[in-house]
């Protein structure tokens, strides 16, 4: 099977000189679920951000689909992201609107008609088990439910690649297991899922591939 994502000798040096990734080479097949492990600061978030073109590599090449992310024109980034669902810590839930409206947000810029959008929002909420909360004010949700809202918002445009940075941080182990089950259900229908975590319980109980980083390098 052709690789969906490949890194060839990729390094990332942030302004200021810190080298967050050093000579990373890896290949990810379509349909994989991968956990990225490693200490705080090991480079997990940086690696995920490079795939989504949130950051650019300093050297080396990154291919996602058929495209070279390092040389992608700025104007091409929205097209790349159509295929990617992203769950990053810094993406905030909007507390001035209900659960439904939060999940609807990404569709409002893509020009679907209201009825199609509404049915997609409900399908996404259903997949994460939040359909009964569509009218709820997000402030009333538990930590695990807020994370499921973020997942629904990330998949509402039906991406083939899902990237989640520490999605179980701050959740107790039962919620963490639930969230992992949600990711697995997307993976079972063919979505490629990449998750960074330092949750020992998830890492010890998974049957999926684990890629470990240490000080910006892959651990063999
Ligand atoms: N925008 C930035 N500018 C400068 N340095 C950065 C930037 N983003 C990350 N870094 C540094 O790069 C290193 C790797 O960070 P990264 O967030 O990729 O690690 P991580 O493995 O995801 O860690 P954590 O689990 O703590 O999020 C860290 O030392 C961090 O301080």
Automatic annotation (TrEMBL):
Recorded GO MF terms: ATP binding; ATP hydrolysis activity; transmembrane transporter activity
Biological process per Gene Ontology, one example term: cell division
Keyword DNA damage annotated: no
A matching Pfam family: ABC_tran
SMART domains, alphabetized: AAA (SM00382)
CC annotations in GO: plasma membrane
Name under which the protein is recorded: Cell division ATP-binding protein FtsE
Species name: Nitrosomonas europaea (strain ATCC 19718 / CIP 103999 / KCTC 2705 / NBRC 14298)
